[in-house]
Amino acid sequence: SYFVTGHQDGMIKIWNASDNSLIIENKFADAPITAIDFPNEKQYFAFGDAFGNIFLYSIPQKKLLKRKKSASFITSLSFTKNGNGFISSHKDNRIRFWNLDKMYYNSYCD
Fold first, then answer.
1. H/E/C letters for each residue in 5-26?
2. pTM for the full model?
3. Could you tell me if 42 and 57 are in contact, meaning their C-beta atoms sit under 8 angstroms apart?
4. Per-residue pLDDT tens digits for 36-80
């Protein structure tokens, strides 16, 4: 299992939870990382930044799978129970419902 830390300089660090060793360290964003979430039992995670970017990263592939620009500062991310989508909340007081496969949002609420 893993844990991930996001930093003010846009850096993401992925750690092995069993021995606390650093697996990956990379600067993905030009803004502070503001939200991170893992779906249940999956080998990928999503994270968002202060510029409104949302990223999807694969741990086994050690690669960024997708990057999508959203409307504003990401305040939180939460995957659905089945891991096929996620919800993002934003500083502009909107909530977006995202389809993970195509990385687009289906709808939003004000």
1. EECCCCEEEEEECCCCCEEEEE
2. 0.90
3. no
4. 999 877 789 999 999 999 999 999 999 999 999 987 999 999 999
- Point out which residues pair with 99 in neighbouring strands: 85, 104
- For 103, phi then psi, to 5°, come to 55, 55
Long-range contacts of 75-81 (CB under 8 A, 24+ apart): 75/34, 75/35, 76/35, 76/37, 77/35, 77/36, 77/37, 77/46, 77/47, 77/48, 78/37, 79/37, 79/38, 79/39, 79/40, 79/42, 79/46, 80/39, 81/40
Q: Which two tokens stand for residue 94?
A: 């909107």
